Amino acid sequence: MARFELKLPKMGESVAEATITNWLKQVGDKIEADEAVLEIATDKVDSEVPSEVSGVLVEQLFGKDDLVQVGQTIAIIETEGGSGSETSFLVDKIEETPIPVEAITIEKTIETVKETVVAPQDFSGSDKFFSPLVKNIAKEENVSITELENLLGSGKDGRVTKEDILKYVDDRKSGIIAPLQPVIEVVEEVKEITQEAVKVEEVKEVIKEVVTPKVAVETAAPKSNQTVPVSVNGGDEIIEMDRMRKLISGYMVASVQTSAHVQSFIEVDVTNIVKWRDKVKTAFEKREGEKLTFTPIMMEAVAKALKDFPGMNISVDGDYIIKKKNINLGMAAALPNGNLIVPVIKNADQLNLVGMAKAVNDLGNRAKTGKLKPDDTQGGTYTVTNVGTFGSVFGTPIINQPQVGILALGAIRKVPAVIETPEGDFIGIRQKMFLSHSYDHRVVDGALGGSFVKRVAEYLEAFDVDRDI
Fold this sequence. Notes:
The chain is α+β, with helices and mostly antiparallel strands. It has helices at 83-96, 107-118, 132-140, 145-150, 162-174, 183-195, 200-211, 243-258, 271-288, 295-308, 353-368, 446-461, and strands at 3-7, 17-23, 30-31, 36-41, 46-50, 55-60, 67-69, 73-78, 261-269, 314-317, 320-323, 329-331, 333-334, 340-341, 344-345, 382-385, 405-409, 413-421, 424-440.
């Protein structure tokens, strides 16, 4: 029978790995060609991996939450027959399974010990968060879930870091930390104790002492890093963050801890833009099959300003500043589930307004329907977020690392304004909005940050009301 290796497919030039989030097919399940076998996730986009052949899934080489490199084999599919392949797979597994040592007393307790000591590491039931890297090291070094949960890390909120788990493994090998005893030794100890007619309670205490690792004091995180418990009453609802919300949370905290955020604000008169769009939007939609929103007009002005001020189109890598050749505009988009994603318009400065409108609509629609590709969210050099969509007048957005700036577009409002004319000043109704520019003060000073947002405003206010499209 032929065996087909299902590999993690290439998902874009800049995507090298993905995390398995869910197996849609289990061992023994029949699979049709092009049928989804598992779900994966990159840092920002979820997608499915289909099978290229029909057959039976006989082996899963990675588990949920495992990190897999592009091109790695993730599953084995047998392409001829279902029952034979399934039987041979089960026989192989039986031959690999060691015969358990028979215990004469307190069987339930012994089974618990066996599961704790020799069962494959399954971290899904743990209340603690462990990174994929830490879990992979734990599996390779046979560190059980019990040991991991008793290991106090030095990371934020007591989280176990790569250094913590490697130190623990080294200490265990050198004898500083007592390793878990093999299950046979545990059972023998229990046998001896039961033969001496010791109470069951004492037997449980001995087993607990044998199984629970003695964690070195040096790995304990300072008490000041421990999370303060949140008070919960009977009427509160507890909801675990989904995977994307956890990622967003990590990105936001890391950005605030990395960049010195400062803001500049400017008010812009966009009356001409509003009038022009009202005049051409119907004809534009009939001709192009696309809606014309304000976003592509704003993006066009931002791309022009970035060409004028290339010092905003940079990223930071340690002590080095990287000047970006291409202008790739990130466009923050809200998802139906309330999460946020930032697809990227590549080479935005090379697009005319029609091309910009098509790019904005395409990425926005695919973001809402969950059809973005991993490469669609990579390579951004500057980000724009439209907080005005939700009625906000302005905001103070957090920088999308490793970029150094992000522009928030406020709501467009009719306001009374002083209008200057050669005949004198008068009060009139104008369409205005605020631009909020957050930038990284480590590498962008106020002169550059303020001049950039002022240039965006100048492009918007100078918009030609008679422009052809």
